[in-house]
Design a protein that fits this description.
It contains 17 helices and no strands. It has helices at residues 3-6, 17-34, 37-40, 46-58, 62-87, 94-126, 131-156, 160-191, 197-207, 211-219, 223-237, 240-253, 257-260, 269-281, 288-311, 315-320, 323-351. α2 (17-34) packs across α4, α9 packs parallel to α11 and α10 (211-219) packs antiparallel against α11 (223-237). The relative contact order is 0.18.
C-alpha cells in the first residue's frame, strides 16, 4: 500500500480532510459569532464559542459523522493544537516571560505537587480508588489534562478503561473552568485589588487542566491575561517530564521494578518550541504585517483545536466514569480553585 493510498479513505478523499473541514467550519462559525456585538458583549470569545459549538455537534450529530471525521478531528485536537501553541509564541516577548519568572515557576511546582499529593491521599483514604485511577486523575488535574494522562498511562501500565475514566473527569471540570474562571475575575479583583490581568493569567495557567482550556479561559478576559496564562501553562507542561521520571523511579523502587523498567518518558517538545518562538519574536526580525498574518492563522488553528475538543467531549463518557472518580476530580477542581488561588496569592506576596 502506498503512502498516498494509506492517506485516503475508500472514496478517494484524504483520510483527515472530512474531520478537518468539520473543525474548520465550526471554528469559522465561532469566529463569526464572536465578532457579533451582542455575543461579544457577553464576553464570549471565538475560542469559547468553538468549544460550545463543538460540544453541541459532538453530543447530537457525532454518531453519524464519527466514521468519516474521527481521524481529522483527532488531528486537529492534538497536532493542530500543538502547532497553534507554538505559533502563539509570536504574540509573546521575552519580557512577558520574564514577568512570569521565578514566581510563576514556583506557583506551578507548588500547585502540581499539592494537587497530585491530594489526589493520592483522597483517592486512597476517602474514595477507595485503585492506584492507577487516582494517579491518572491526579496527573491530569495537576499538569495538563488528557495529555498528562496519556503520557502517564505507559509508565504505570494502566488499563484503557481507567484512562478513559480519568480523561472524562478532567475534560468535564476543565471545561467548567473555561466559564467559571472568567466569571470570578471581577469578584476576585474587587476583593484583592492588587490582582492584575497578568497575575490572574498566571493563576489561570497554573490551575486550569488542559492547554486549550487555559487559552480559552484567558482569552475571555484580556490579551494580557491570555498571554500570561499560556506562559504559565507552558512552564507547567514542561514539568511533565520530571513528573514522569518521579513516577518511574517510585515504581522501580517498589515491587513493580521489572515490569516498569522499559517505560519511556516523552518530553513535551511543543512547550519548549513555544518558548523558543517567543524568544525569536522578541528580536523583532519579522515584518509586523507578517507577524499579524501568522497570528490570524494561529487564531484559526486554535479555534479548530477548540472545536475538536468540543466534538470529542461526550456527556455519555462522563456518565460512565462513575461517582467516585467524579467526586475525586471535583474535590481536586475545588482545590485548584481555592488552594491554587491561595498559592498564587502567597507566592506573589512573598516575592512581590
Amino acid at each position: 500500500m502506498t503512502v498516498l493510498t494509506a492517506a485516503k479513505m475508500d472514496g478517494g478523499t484524504p483520510r483527515h480532510l472530512a474531520g478537518l473541514l468539520l473543525a474548520a467550519a465550526i471554528a469559522g462559525a465561532a469566529v463569526w459569532l464572536g465578532n457579533q456585538p451582542a455575543i461579544a458583549a457577553l464576553g464570549m470569545g471565538a475560542l469559547t464559542l468553538a468549544i460550545l459549538l463543538g460540544m453541541l455537534v459532538g453530543n447530537t450529530l457525532w454518531p453519524r459523522l464519527q466514521q468519516q471525521c474521527d481521524s481529522g478531528v483527532l488531528l486537529a485536537k492534538q497536532q493542530l493544537l500543538r502547532l497553534g501553541i507554538i505559533l502563539y509564541g509570536f504574540r509573546i516577548t521575552f519580557q512577558q516571560i520574564a514577568d512570569v519568572g521565578i514566581s510563576g515557576v514556583l506557583i506551578d511546582i507548588l500547585t502540581l505537587c499539592s494537587t497530585f499529593t491530594l489526589a493520592c491521599w483522597l483517592g486512597r483514604r476517602v474514595f477507595g480508588l485503585d492506584r492507577d485511577t487516582r494517579w491518572l486523575i491526579g496527573a491530569g488535574s495537576s499538569i495538563c489534562g488528557a495529555a498528562a494522562i496519556l503520557a502517564t498511562q505507559p509508565v504505570i501500565k494502566a488499563d484503557a478503561a481507567k484512562v478513559a475514566v480519568a480523561i472524562s473527569t478532567v475534560v468535564l471540570f476543565g471545561t467548567l473552568a473555561i466559564f467559571i474562571w472568567p466569571l470570578l475575575w471581577p469578584l476576585a479583583h474587587s476583593v484583592f485589588p492588587q490582582l492584575t490581568p497578568t497575575s490572574w493569567g498566571i493563576f489561570t495557567g497554573s490551575t486550569v487542566h488542559e492547554v486549550a482550556q487555559v487559552v480559552a479561559a484567558g482569552h475571555a478576559i484580556s490579551p494580557e491575561t491570555e498571554n500570561a496564562a499560556v506562559i504559565a501553562k507552558m512552564l507547567r507542561v514542561m514539568m511533565l517530564a520530571p513528573f514522569l521520571l518521579f513516577l518511574t523511579l517510585r515504581l522501580r523502587h517498589g515491587a513493580a521494578a521489572e515490569a516498569e523498567a522499559g517505560s519511556a518518558i516523552r518530553f513535551p517538545w511543543f512547550a519548549l518550541l513555544f518558548i523558543l518562538v517567543a524568544l525569536f519574536n522578541s528580536l523583532h526580525l519579522l515584518p509586523v504585517s507578517l507577524v499579524q498574518s501568522i497570528n490570524q492563522l494561529d487564531t484559526l488553528l486554535l479555534a479548530m483545536a477548540m472545536a475538536a475538543l468540543g466534538l470529542t467531549t461526550h456527556l455519555s463518557a462522563v456518565k460512565r466514569a462513575g461517582v467516585r472518580p467524579l467526586l475525586l476530580a471535583l474535590l481536586l477542581f475545588c482545590w485548584l480553585l481555592g488552594g491554587g488561588g491561595l498559592i498564587n496569592l502567597g507566592v506573589h506576596h512573598l516575592m512581590g
